[in-house]
Amino acid sequence: MRNQKANGWNRRKFLGGLALTGAAAMIGLRPEIALAAVEPPPETRTIRLRYWDPACWAPFYLAEPFLREEGFTDIRYVAVPTTEFPDAYKKNLIDLSCGFSVVDMYHLEKEHSPHKFLSGFHVGCYALIGSDRVRSVRDLKGKTVWAGSLEYGGPHLFFSAIVAYVGLDPRKDIKYVWVKKDEALDMFRDGKIDALMSFPPGPQELMAKGIGRLLIDTNVDKPWSQYFCCMMGGHSDFIKNNPIATKRALRAILKSIDLVSREPAMAARELLARKIVKQKDEKYVIQALKEIPYGRWREYNPEDTIRFYALRMRDTGLLKTNPQQFIDQHTDWRFINQLKKEFGITAW
Amino acid sequence: MKVWLPKLVARAPFTVHTKLIGAFFAIVALLIIFGLVVIQVLSGINRRSEELSQLRRKVGAFRQLQHDTTAQIYGVTSALLSPEERMIESALRQLHEFRYDLERLQFVTRDEVELFGRIKIEHEQLIQMITNVVELTRAQEYKKANDLRLTKIVPLADTLERLTNEMVNRAEADMEAKVDESNRAHMTSRWVVIGFAVGSIGLAILLGYAVSSSLMGPVMLMDERLRQIASGDFSKHVEVPNRDELGTLADNLNRMNNELRDLYQQIEAASRHKSDFLSNMSHELRTPLNAIIGYSEMLTEEAEDRDQKDFIPDLQKIRASGRHLLELINDILDLSKIEAGKVELFPETFDVKLLIEEISGTVQPLIEKNSNILAINCADNLGDMYADITKVRQILFNLLSNACKFTELGTITLDAVRDCSEDAAWLSVSVTDTGIGMTEEQMEKLFQPFSQADIQIARKYGGTGLGLAITRQFCEMMGGDIKVRSEFGRGTAFTMRLPMAAPHPEGDIVSLIASDGSSKSA
Q1: CB A237 within 8 A of CB A114
Q2: How high is the ipTM of this complex?
Q3: Which domains does chain B show, CATH number per domain?
């Protein structure tokens, strides 16, 4: 895990923050900011946020100016790959995170990671792309699939839920190839694998190049498009000890989500500037950020996402706890429910 | 527990009857509890089945509503594409179904009022929009109708689908929770049932063990104690913890033991006094008697020398009577010595065959007296014996003289064999006669001192009745025994069995060379 509060970031962050704050003002987010001002100050001025490579987490990375407005002065981004995610919480290295819902759920139960889900983040960034030999998800039975470079990583767990939904056994019916993403894309192009499950910008690149067939686009295809793909969570101790800070941080990130939803190109440029995505992927990242329906956090009930994925994971044996138990143990919707009222949301 | 539980039950201040009834009721109570638990478990299973069934009905209703929504969009789209009255009527007809299914949903989601309320609002909006589209279509304002469909109806349908999906998810999650609850209940029930079954069996065994031990333990102790009392051991008391009838019985047994002990001590003292008296008296009687016998012999000799033969028969009668009296006194003395524990053994090595020949010579006059025949069968391997020769001689003499006394014109047979069974060498001598024999009743008191078969026999055949008692005492003193078989009127057989090697006075093992040359040790 690398602490990215390096000196090299400061100027960019300052400029980016300024630009984003300006944009926020432009798109009319000021009422919420005003609300934040009358709230008591956060219990802590320091906040540590997780970052990693998925481009869809852009609002999380770009929330810094909003966090400053909420009273945080020491904002740290800690690089946490999926494999180290439970440890990051166990070792108390991060306070808030954004993660793939199914992965976080899996780790919460398996690793007893001390964190709770706080809110939805965005819907459907994953896409399942099949070769010409595959026409439907059920055709994947006995086929070779790339679902991430790690077993029980985000793509693998999402893929497991998707194939289990149509009656396939993700462990027995599928042959997996555990290679790096670039190698997997090459293999797919060469016809060595039959399907590929990936998050942005991989699917966008393949589609743009006319390679493969889009089997499932979780942005639009039901039921996946009806649930959050990524969700926000926080360290249990941080939430418990700093409820005001948690709420303020959540508010800042939600504002950032709205900003990215309205300004995907600007957000993509920020990701490039911060070297979170590669230059060659810029147009695909912009496309992905445009396609991802970030505004859904206002409409969708995050609890239902947990319930839905808990059901799917139970189907595949990846989760032992029953959905309601899981919700009771590992979620805390107090903050998002309060913010809902602030934001005037009545959808759920 | 093995010890304290029966003690605890024994100490409980209840009667045996109450204890047995108590144990029975404890087991019955357990069975009743077990039955109640099973009924509870079954009720739980039944309840969960009903809840699962309700949830299934809920999911069905949600799915039906989703289907209705899709059908509505399809109906409206069809009506727009083909604006005939028939299609419009069909779309309106579907609205009725929609309402009906909504009512069904309201019925099955009584516990989720809030979510149903939201769905209902959305549905009412959708119904209103569809009605508007239908009206616009009838008014042939197709563009407006289509715009309304795309901008309002389709997003509303999406929202509705999501909301119903949420309700389905909730229902499914509830089902999963019920399944988990059912599994947990199953596990719990299983362990409860197993626990109760094991507990019941354990308790039944425990109660059975405790009650039976608390009853049988004292009974066995008292039985053992009674055996000891029967064998003359009055030194102990039976101690039982029971505070029931058995405790009382044990107290009574101890009291009986004490009384018997006192009685026995009195009898023992009396017997000892009797033996001492007999011993002293015998000794005191023998001295003048020896003088009488001696003087009668001297007088007989003098009468013969002086040729006064008229006195001789009388003197011989005096002498014979004196000898008879001396024998009687000797027997009494022997018996009293035995009873007083004053008889000592003086073992020595002697040839058994020679001893038998010597005795056969001694008893010859007795044999001839009743015109009997004596047959002696000695095994060739009799060899030497290490024992008190005087006692052995007296035993054989007693047996033979008895046989002579009760047999007339018959045969008396003496069989002597060496028996090497039971890891030791034994001398087995049987004296069989063809005399008057005995009944079972007579045999029972045969070895008792001062007792003969019956009074008539005593009168007819004479004797003190001490011979066989002394014989048996001698046999037992030398580590052997004596047995009798008899048939009334047909004869009697006494079989005496003595070890060939008696323990040496210094405790050494005596080795004897058997007549067949093999080495025997005892």
Answers
A1: yes
A2: 0.74
A3: 4-216 (1.20.120.30), 245-339 (1.10.287), 346-521 (3.30.565.10)
